[in-house]
Amino acid sequence: VPQRLATLATTAQEEAQQSWQQLQAQRQEVAQLQEQLNRARQDGERWASALQRAQREAVEREATRGAEQARQQELVRDMKGRLLELLREKDALWQKTEGIDTPPPSPAPREAGLCARCRKDFRLLSRRYNCRLCHGKVCHACSVDVGKHGRCCLLCYQQRRPQAT
Q1: Per-residue pLDDT tens for 9-35?
Q2: Which ranges form a coiled coil (predicted)?
Q3: Could you tell me which residues come within 8 angstroms of residue 143 by beta carbon, excluding any fewer than 6 positions away?
Q4: What is the pTM for the complete model shown?
């Protein structure tokens, strides 16, 4: 029995030694896991800080963008107002110019060899006519036959015609 007890004691001592070694290995593993956990917490805090900073920057950018958009909308509104003003001015000027008659015909050119309207040369086949109103020399294409009064240039005819009706 004493030998059996010695064997059991030795076996128990070896098992205790193995348990102690396993316990030490597990303690080392726990220490490593705690170290990893601490690093993960630190990383999480850094990420949370970076996220908060990014959110603040996004809010600031959004505020800046909102202010810029408001300025642009105001500019567009001002431009539309100015456009309406310009259109009103254009309409007013247009109405003022409606009553203005066309300018009187320009005097006949001094050169007797050119049509006063189209500046075409008078030749053998292009006949020259004297306008009865402005006395300019005009070709057949630039003149109108007004019956017993003779011929006149198109410009004088157009200005005279509204008065005749």
Answers
A1: 999 999 999 999 999 999 999 999 999
A2: 23-57
A3: 129, 131, 151, 152, 153, 154
A4: 0.37
